[in-house]
Amino acid sequence: MSLRSLIEKLGTGSRLLRRGQRQPLAPPVLREPERFPYGPFRWKAQLPAGTNYSVLASTNLRTWVPVFQGQAQDAPIEYVDSEAPKFTCRFYRLLTAEVQSANVIGYAAVSLPPGFSMIANPFDSPATVSELFKNWPEGTSVNRFDTRQFRLVENVIKAGKWADPNEKLLRGAGAIFFNPTTDYKSASFVGDVCQGNLSAPIPSGFSLRGSLVPQAGNLVEDLGFPITDGDVIHLFDRERQKYSLHPYTADKWPASQPVIGIGEAFWVAKTESRNWTQTLIIDT
After folding, report:
1. Would you tell me how many other CB atoms lie within 10 Å of the CB of residue 157?
2. Is the pLDDT of residue 5 over 70?
3. Could you write out the DSSP letters of every residue in 138-175?
4. What value, to the nearest 5°, has the Cα angle with vertex 63 and ends 57 and 69?
5. Closest CA to 187 of 260, 111, 121
6. For range 113-134, the mean pLDDT
């Protein structure tokens, strides 16, 4: 079903309910996103009672499909996606006959094998490290790279508590995660998908980075990274627990262009500072 036909279908019921009464509808805001471990994804929204709505979902922010249709009651809408375990990432928007939701939210699951992983939060989210990584054992750690002091800053679980439980992994900033167990585990980033023209400074020298949007692809062609001659990208192979280097010399990649996954971070050794600008426009 196309968006146009879906809007027309929603509009028929809404017009009957609002006959003789017309009040502009403010775009609803999707809020309180939560991903249960290895399970469903839940969020809430508020609409006037009697408003027909449809929930749209996507795995790539381009193709959207209706996954639920309903009518708002007095209480806030609470949508639970029981199909979420089938997808490593999924995004959601809400549509009525008049407006679509003011924001798009979603989740992205990252695999955390024993040992080290390089991760990056692709969402705007208020979640702290202690909320992102609940019930992890002693020795679990998150390391961020301080580009001013040129050193790693460690946050570790000791005596059952994070050293800094209120630390946040900001969108686009990478981190090194250590899983001290012998088990493969998973964690999920959740939050708002930022849209429009987004930009982050990439300093000269080493820095630990991730994409500003929850999309995977070739670092330059798909994600728009400002590569310059002499730059070196360091990817980390989680399975083999070793780095692979991707130098950019003579305006080309001698081997292959790095491919970055959603929620994956990478080291960059930059010859000169640049701004990393990414544009994400979600079609209406």
Report:
1. 20
2. no
3. TT-EEEEEETTTTEEEEEEEETTEESSTT----TTBEE
4. 35
5. 111
6. 95
pLDDT per position as a tens digit, 199-232: 999 999 999 999 999 999 999 999 999 999 999 9
Closest CA to 148 of 199, 203, 209: 203
Contact 33, 107 (CB under 8 A): yes
Tokens of 53: 């709505």
Give the domain ranges of the chain: 3-103, 110-280
Q: What is d(CA 217, CA 141) in angstroms, rounded to the nearest whole number?
A: 28
Map tokens 């800053």 to a residue. Answer: 153
The residue with tokens 């360091």 is 234
* pTM as predicted: 0.89
Fold of 3-103: Immunoglobulin-like (2.60.40)
